[in-house]
Fold:
Amino acid sequence: MAPVFGDATLLVIEKVQFERLQPGMTVAYQNDRGRRVVHQLLEPTASGWRVQGLNNESADRDRVTRENLIGVVYASLATDPSED
Structure:
């Protein structure tokens, strides 16, 4: 989710009940190709939450569901890669 989270960012993910999700939350989920994704919740639908990355022009085709939800981004810790 660049530019918010860069390459040298550690995310703290908190498990949350699916029913407690709200629009605007940044969540981690596993997409249908098995990749872990961190995107922002848009709106609930009958098939799960619509999500979209900040740099994406459109919403993901995947939905966040009770089964693929990993959790909500609770905190992020970043280092400045220019200091390496």
